[in-house]
What we know:
Elements: E1 6-16, E2 20-25, E3 34-39, H1 41-45, E4 55-61, E5 64-73, H2 81-103
Amino acid sequence: MSKDVIELIGIVEESFPNATFRVKVLSSQAKDHELHCTLAGRMRKFRVRILPGDRVKVEITPYDLEKGRITYRFRSDQILPLDEETEEKEEAEETEESKTEQAS
């Protein structure tokens, strides 16, 4: 069995009973898409608490793009993978600007 999953990053909008959540996607692949997600088995096993406003990693299958599984909760001080890309671009722009200022 192949692992055909799409990994996205989102923010928990609302919490429902039985460890289900509504998640708004932040990733560029499906910007502003809303999913109905459940907790993955490991997160249930280790009793990871999810609250509205938490940033999470979600897996969805290509067969049903409305449902997902929360596999990871990011810490509040942790940088998101999509934030790293934008930070690298900003740093590159800053270094280019400083090089042009030094050359002047």
